[in-house]
Amino acid sequence: MGPSQLGSITDIDNATGLVTRRIGSRTGAPTMLKAVPLSGQTIFTLAPANIGTPYPLCTGPVGLWVYIASLPGHGAAGTPTATLTLALGTRTNGTAGNYFNVSFNANVLREGWNFLICKHDAAPFPSGFGVIESEIADGADANIENGLSFIQVIMNAAMVGATLYFDSMWANFTQKPQLVLGCDGFAADLTATALPIFQSYGWVGYCAAALSGAGTETETTMQTGAGKDFATYQSAASVARIQACYDAGWDVIDHSATHRRLGDMTDKAVIAFERHRSQQWRLGNGWVRGSEFYAAPQGSTSRVAEGVLRQLGVVSQRNGRGFGTSVTPHGIDNPHQVGSFDMGSLTVGQTFANLKAALDACVAHGVSAHMFWHFIQTAGDPGDGTGSTGDALYIYASSFRLFMAYARSLEQGGALTVCKGYSGFYYGMP
After folding, report:
1. Largest CA distance in the chain
2. Bridging pattern class, strands 369-373 and 341-342
3. How far is it, in rounded angstroms, from Cα 350 to Cα 185?
């Protein structure tokens, strides 16, 4: 079903110098609304007072296209804390009344383009995923399926310093969710457990492979050899497992040379080294497929790191911000800020129930999920998907198998597309 546009919004001006290039509409809207928060909380209403007649019924989700320039905290070693909230209601007299409130915090908002989705009565995102949905006063006016008349935008004080360009709002659209699966660790379980499951389902995933995985090597030790610890490098056995996956059609994507936090780095030459040295190793092994993609070690990224990697041929970057990626008629909303979810997370991962809840929320909102794991453990596994290993790098085999079987059932039911690696997600390969 095609999107039905609720309305573009007015005026764009790039004369202030706050951004380095003109921000044109992502959707072809003739004008956009520029907002520059100055101090404290910023609130403005998009739907006019006394509108009289609601917009067409919102039987599906509502989506907001917004570009965030100069997001505070996105510099090297920074921590964004900005929040953007949408209040959506059905009253036609210009007052909020009871309304549907959706808050997007720093775990979701990204510098650049965002397509922010609100869907009433959908399976909620788990705590910590950055999307908080609630009904204010729990009234009928929050039921936006009855028509949308009141739209208010609220930005917290941490947004001061950013410039936002509101492109357009959309309703009654559909996005088929996708699941992208990858592995960041290469022990025996990869080829003994994961690969056979994927092959039985006709799936391919990707390996996010760092040359040295401990995060203790540096550009100096790698280049001079002084202090180099080869025990931290991928072993011959790990290389053989990656090769087996590659031969089965998996991508092998960049995960840096040293597995350090690139988002904390200020030296562009060091960031470039991480890319070049990793490329040298991967391409030297013949792993060409997937080399244009990058997974940020520890989910760490910044404006500086993202920019350097773009210049060095990376076309899409997986990091830790923005779980639930929108793939729209205008493409991936922000391909250099693709959020992801570590299945081993001790707070929202580990068990089958937790993994299912995360995927269910993505399916309900029509967004795509990037989920990855490190190692699959059999020792101590209760066998029913309820156990936690107590170590974020490990997930029990029963949880892994049950989750993959559940994803397969959604795929067979037509509710989900399981992508053929990162390439399948980025290029839209069937």
Report:
1. 74
2. parallel
3. 16
CA distances to 20, 324, 358 from 343, in Å = 38, 14, 10
The residue written with tokens 């490990």 in the block is 394
Q: In the structure encoding, which two tokens stand for residue 2, read together?
A: 């095609």
- CA atoms of 287 and 75, how far apart (whole Å): 32
Residue 210, CA atoms < 13 Å, CB-side half-sphere = 26
**Contact call for residues 208 and 184 (beta carbons, < 8 A):** yes
Coil vs helix vs strand at 178: strand
Cα(274)–Cα(144) distance, integer angstroms: 48
What digits encode the pLDDT tens for the residues 18-68? 333 467 889 988 888 889 998 888 887 766 444 445 555 566 688 999 999
Name the token pair of 278.
Answer: 């990793």
For 54, the token pair is: 């609601």
Distance between CA atoms of residues 168 and 234, nearest Å: 47
Check pLDDT > 60 for residue 245. Answer: yes
Q: Is the dihedral of CA 261, 263, 267, 272 positive or negative?
A: positive
Q: What Å distances lie between residue 19 and 1, 52, 159, 201, CA to CA? A: 35, 38, 15, 46
Residues 6+ apart with CB under 8 A from 110: 68, 71, 321, 322, 334, 337, 339
Give pLDDT, residue 141.
55
Going from the C-alpha of 66 to that of each of 9, 26, 268, 325, the distances in angstroms are 11, 9, 28, 14
Q: Nearest to residue 248, comparing CAs of 283, 189, 198?
A: 198
C-alpha atoms less than 13 angstroms from C-alpha of 47 in its C-beta half-sphere: 25
- Asked if residues 69 and 159 have their Cβ atoms less than 8 Å apart, the reply is no
CA distance 389 to 69: 41
